[in-house]
Amino acid sequence: MSAIAGGLAALMLAGCNGGTDGGSTQDVTKLEGTLASADPLTLTVHMHFWGTNVFDDTWPVYQEAAKRTNITLHGTASKTNTESDQVFNTMLTSEPLPDIIHGESKNLNKAGTDGALIPLQDLVDKYAPHIKAIFDEHPEYKKATLAADGNLYYIPCLRDDAGPAQGWFIRQDWLDKLGLPVPTTVDEYYNTLKAFRDQDPNGNGKKDEVPFFDRHNSVDKLVGLWNPGTGDVTTFGDYSIDKDGNVYCARTTEGYKTAMKELAKWYAEGLIDQEIFTRKNPREALFGDNTGGATNDWFSSTMSFNEKTKGKYPEFHLAVIPPVKNVEGEIKNQFARNATAGIGWGISKDNKHVPETMKYFDFWFTEEGSLLNAMGIEGTHYTVENGEQKYTDMVLGYEGGGAPNYMRTIGGQEIGYFAELGPEIAGMTGEAAEGFKEYADNKWTVKAFPSLSYTSEEERTIAAKGTALTTYMKESQQNWILGNKDVDASWDQYVSDLKSLGLDEVIAAYQAAYNRQK
Ligand code: CA
Fold first, then answer.
1. From the CA of 462, how far away is ligand 1's center (Å)?
2. Which of 9, 300, 371, 485 has the fewest CB atoms within 10 Å, i.e. the most exposed one?
């Protein structure tokens, strides 16, 4: 045997036996630019989330990524089943496992703890400089991603949490018509809604205006006005965290009780949609017939009603306004979103190309990888003007819901990457973008309840008792708002019922998880 042939055989043998990092024989840290493998390599991926987002080998975003990294992904999940959790669990019984496993954090952390995914923390340091940089800059992102056993089992989808999730909207044309300023305090807001109710701003001679309504069939968007919380964590939801780091129920506070009393009054006075808890497609219904006055919702989709109503109601003008000040006089936009989206991807125990996969994961954290996932391919999906990326008209005008939904059809998904605010704003029309920016620049939005990693026991407690508690809180809220029960008369019973249902245990589970993360 010649020396060359012998060397080749040894090399091939090394390739088959597997080196220390799962079989790779190349030093990926020495590869040029965004390459993640010296030779073209195909890796299998399981991606099936939120029911209908299933990896498609024809997605242009991934074909482009293959050109830049030398790694092609091949999806293994079927589109026929829409139960993502079930598909995930079935996938875990396959042998070998797909090289890359995408999913929600609860499933990934469990799979990791059970041994299906490998720990990534050391690999990040070794092969993924861009991921390492963001974890170094924001240790809280990494902490929020670690499993309860302390390992990092997936690379998370992260987003700039300076961005608001939802904002306050009001009919500017109605304010103008009635000669009213933009309301800034609870009293002003109340009086504005009263004027909408009484002064026929839609001009049809009927008292048919619905001053405030909410698409999510809830009054929760208004509760924060009286229930601001003492910390910087939102009180929108069942639980919050006070300024000393104590988890508490946001629906048993004095502020919440006051909110229920006030909002029951607002409802009784006709300031809140009389079908608030049951109406289907409220925005389409109430903007569609020119009776809706104010709401609180996502920027882009809500602002699109200015376009949608143009033909029918030329004067229709919905505007973003700053969040109304709460009773403490602060602006706290309570509908917040987490920097960690609770989703990402990891490396399975059967993956034979761990360094390459890690380098590939890192690609999506580079500027060009992030832009590719968020905006697609330059020239086709976006153009650059004066240094700013703009979606093309084809993407912005997508009838299935504009840029965010168009991006899904070409592969822009919640993978492990950092979502900048820029592309999100680029997907909005003028006024929505301005409003979104104003909220972001002023940092009006408080923090979301953090995403935490739970032990199996904590998770069982939260799943079993937390669900019953949420249901009971919701029912009680509806009874108060609709006037079926008196808040003062039933409050003590309400609190004691919650305790019987296990409120203290659920709070203790959140507290333990929060303390561990801190
Ligand atoms: Ca009217």
1. 46
2. 9
The letter for the amino acid at 250 is: A
Residue position matching structure tokens 């496992």: 97
Cβ of 455: how many Cβ atoms within 10 Å?
16
Contacts of residue 332, defined as CB under 8 A and 6 or more positions apart, other chains included, come to 224, 228, 229, 323, 326, 444, 446
Q: How confident is the model at residue 25 (pLDDT cuts 50, 70, 90)?
A: low
The Å distance, Cα 179 to ligand 1 centre, comes to 16
Tens of pLDDT, residue by residue over 93-124, are 999 999 999 999 989 999 999 999 999 999 99
Reported as a single tens digit per residue, the pLDDT across 56-78 is 999 999 999 999 999 999 999 99
Give 121: exposed, middle or buried? Use CB within 10 Å, 0-12, 13-18, 19+: middle
Bridge partners, 72 (sequence order): 42
Summarize pLDDT for 272-289 with one digit per residue, the tens: 999 999 999 999 999 999
Question: How much distance in Å is there from the Cα of 211 to the middle of ligand 1?
Answer: 11
- Ligand 1 centre and the CA of 313: distance in Å? 14
Reply yes or no on whether the pLDDT at 390 is more than 50. yes
Instruction: Please give the distance, rounded to the nearest whole angstrom, from the Cα atom of residue 284 to the centre of ligand 1.
Output: 18
- Residue found by looking up tokens 């020119």 in the block: 290
Burial of 444 per CB tally in 10 Å (0-12, 13-18, 19+): buried
pTM, to two decimals: 0.80
Residue 239: its H or E element = strand 239-241
For residue 366, report the distance from its CA to the centre of ligand 1, in Å: 53
Ligand 1 centre to CA of 268 (Å) is 19
Give the Å distance between the CA of 206 and the centre of ligand 1: 4
Distance from Cα 196 to the centre of ligand 1, integer Å: 9
The Å distance, Cα 288 to ligand 1 centre, comes to 14
DSSP 30: G
